[in-house]
Amino acid sequence: MSRSKENIFGQAFASISVSVLIGFAIYGALIWAPTEKTMGFLQRIFYFHAASGEVMILAFCAAFIGNVGYLIRRKIEWDWLAISSVEVGLIFNTISLVTGPIWAKPAWGIWWDWGDARLTSTFVLWVLYIGYVILRRMIENKPYLTFFGPTKP
Amino acid sequence: MNRPAKSVSLTRAAASVFAKELRVEFRSFEILTSTIIFALIVVFVFSFAFNPSAADSRRFGAGFLWIALLFASSLMLQPSFTRERTNDTLAALVLAPIDPFAIIAGKLFANFFFLVLVELVLLPAFSVLYNVSLLGIIGPLAGVMLLGTFGIATVGTVFAAIASQARMRELLLPLLLLPALVPLLIAAVGATMGLLSDSHELPLAWVAVMVCFDIMFFTAAWLFGGYLLEE
Fold first, then answer.
1. Residues of B near A (CB-CB distance < 8 A)?
2. Who has the most CB within 10 Å: A71, B35, B95, B167?
3. What's the pLDDT tens digit per position in B151-206?
4. Residue B202 lies in a domain
């Protein structure tokens, strides 16, 4: 793909504005927001933990729409939506799975509780989508299995 | 999917694929012998690793049994598609003027049948090695085993079809299959554990979960099975 000038400017604009927004968010979460009464400083991890969980849900919903759209319309753009949403969702899924135990250790006294349905199902979700991404990388370049689309566009 | 008019009914086509799978397997017994031996080894290894007493067996036996079965099936299901690759016979099957789901269904029921044969050997061995009497609960236990096995065969056949198109497919199948089977594993272990406990009571809630799982995934395989074999 040839990279045009607008594309570079667009990318530079996107990276700068995203960095500024992340800076604002960290400032807001760690300094600007008042300390919570019962949980104290620990509660601040929710600004990352809950938000990544929500982004994860949003991304996996987009992946679902992309996959269904690809099955119906058979346009490669739908498949791009699916795989890129899965990759984004997987990153935020990982963040919420890492920040969860960091919160749980002081709050529950243990890092991990297999009896907690949400924690366990999020972990299963993570493993399932890891499998999806690995599968996408390993599908041989054959026209078979358009269900998952070709490996590379 | 523009296919010509079906000349053979779905059931008859699936039955002939099923018969073909059985014929291929009974010529060599390759899959069955190695799967049975593997499942037995897993059960042996667990008993060496945990050295369970009769009371432990009643608590954890259900888990050992289902894990042995899951591992064995994740090994066993792959050849049902990979051995079609040698002569590219899958392409020939797909070209046949039958509903593509018939191919999936034939293989699915063949895998189900093979897994039941594995269980027929595995269960007595389990009963002896773990000192658990199964005679009094054989009826409900058979029901639970059949429901669980059908779920494994359904999800497993679909994922085997997907994984057979990938590199490292033998590694990939357990990776895809085991997380997808987690709900079934939880329900199957719950139901079996209830049967092995002193009260021998069958927890109907877990059975209901297994029935729902089987219906859901079989319907999904029916609806989307055609896409799996598409070229």
1. 162-163, 165-169, 172, 175-176, 179-180, 182, 224, 227-231
2. B35
3. 999 999 999 988 887 888 788 899 999 999 999 999 999 999 999 888 888 899 99
4. yes
Q: Which residues of chain B have pLDDT under 70?
A: 1-7, 231
CB atoms within 10 A of CB B135: 7
User: Do A25 and A46 meet the contact criterion of CB atoms below 8 Å apart?
Assistant: no
In A, which residues are within 8 Å of B213 by CB distance? none
Q: Is the residue at B3 inside a domain?
A: no
- Residue B5 counted as domain residue: no
Instruction: Write the burial class of residue A115 (CB in 10 Å: 0-12 exposed, 13-18 middle, 19+ buried).
Output: exposed
Nearest CA in chain A to B91: A144
Q: Which residue of A has its CA nearest to B162?
A: A145
Quote the number of domains for chain B. 1
Chain A, 10 to 49: residues with Cβ < 8 Å from chain B are none
Q: The whole model's pTM is what?
A: 0.84
Q: Which of B126, B138, B148, B117 is nearest to B33 (CA)?
A: B117
Cα separation of B16 and B110, whole Å? 11
